[in-house]
Design a protein that fits this description.
ATP-dependent RNA helicase involved in mRNA turnover, and more specifically in mRNA decapping. It holds the Pfam family Helicase_C. Belongs to the DEAD box helicase family. DDX6/DHH1 subfamily. It is found in: Cytoplasm. The protein has two domains: 94 residues, Rossmann fold; 105 residues, 3-Layer(aba) Sandwich (Rossmann fold). The protein is built from nine helices and eight strands. The longest helix is centred in the C-terminal third of the chain and has 13 residues. By secondary structure, the chain is of the alpha/beta class. The strands form three sheets. A four-stranded parallel β-sheet has the order 6-7-5-8, with helices on both faces.
Length: 227
C-alpha cells in the first residue's frame, strides 16, 4: 500500500487491518502510523531508502531515525542516491553494518545538456524570463524557485504576461498536487513553477527547458533539478 502525508489517515488505518507485504510512503506518515500502533514493523526485515540524500535532509532525517527504532535490529537497509553527500556517508557509518557500495557511475555529469546563465539583478528576473519565453522554442518548461511564496508570485506574474502556467509546492494538498502534475504531464499547460519538491523521480518527455529562477542552495540540488 501507499501512504503519504496529505491523504486520509483514517483510510490508511483501515487498510492496515489487512495484511500488507509492501509499504511505500513518506517517513513522517509511516512514523505516525507506527506510533499509533497500527503499523507493526517488528517483523519488517528490509528498509529501502530511495533518494537517500533527500531522506537524510533536515526535513526528513529525524523522522527516519525514529522510524528505525520500530524495526528489528537485524533489518537490512538499502540506500539509493544519485549523489553521495556527507549526510549519506554519516548515516551509512552509523546504521549499516559492513555495507556493500555499488557505484554505477564514476561521476554524475551533465553531458548532453546545454546550460546557460543570465547575470541579472533581482528586479530584472521577470523581464529576463519573458525574453527567454519569446526567444526559446519551448515544448514545456519547469521553473524552480526557492520558496513557496516565490513560486506562487512568479506563477501569477507569468500568467499576467499571457503564458499558460501551473504551480506546485509542498503546502498544497496531496490531491491538488496530483491533479496539477497529471494535467501538466498530459500537456494541459506549458509552464510549471515549483519548489524542489519537484526535483526527483519526475520524467516528463515533453519538458525541454529547465529554468532556475532562484539558484539552488547546493550543487546536488542543481543536478537533480536539471537532470
Amino acid at each position: 500500500m501507499v501512504t503519504t502525508g496529505g491523504t486520509s489517515l483514517k483510510d490508511d488505518i483501515m487498510r492496515l487491518y489487512q495484511p500488507v507485504h509492501l509499504l511505500v510512503g513518506t517517513p513522517g506518515r509511516i512514523l505516525d502510523l507506527a506510533k499509533k500502533g497500527v503499523c507493526i514493523l517488528k517483523n519488517c526485515s528490509m528498509l529501502i531508502m530511495d533518494e537517500a540524500d533527500k531522506l537524510l535532509s533536515p526535513e526528513f532525517q529525524p523522522s527516519l531515525e525514529q522510524l528505525l527504532c520500530f524495526l528489528p535490529p537485524n533489518r537490512q537497509i538499502l540506500m539509493f542516491s544519485a549523489t553521495f553527500p556527507v549526510t549519506v556517508k554519516d548515516f551509512k557509518d552509523r546504521y549499516l553494518k559492513k555495507p556493500y557500495i555499488i557505484n554505477l557511475m564514476d561521476e554524475l555529469t551533465l553531458k548532453g545538456i546545454t546550460q546557460y546563465y543570465a547575470f541579472v539583478e533581482e528586479r530584472q528576473k521577470v523581464h529576463c524570463l519573458n525574453t527567454l519565453f519569446s526567444k526559446l522554442q519551448i515544448n514545456q518548461s519547469i521553473i524552480f524557485c526557492n520558496s513557496v511564496n516565490r513560486v506562487e508570485l512568479l506563477a501569477k506574474k507569468i500568467t499576467e504576461l499571457g503564458y499558460s502556467c501551473f504551480y506546485i509546492h509542498a503546502k498544497m494538498l496531496q490531491d491538488h498536487r496530483n491533479r496539477v502534475f497529471h494535467d501538466f504531464r498530459n500537456g494541459a499547460c506549458r509552464n510549471l513553477v515549483c519548489t524542489d519538491l519537484f526535483t526527483r523521480g519526475i520524467d516528463i518527455q515533453a519538458v525541454n527547458v529547465v529554468i532556475n529562477f532562484d539558484f539552488p542552495k547546493n550543487s546536488e540540488t542543481y543536478l537533480h533539478r536539471v537532470c
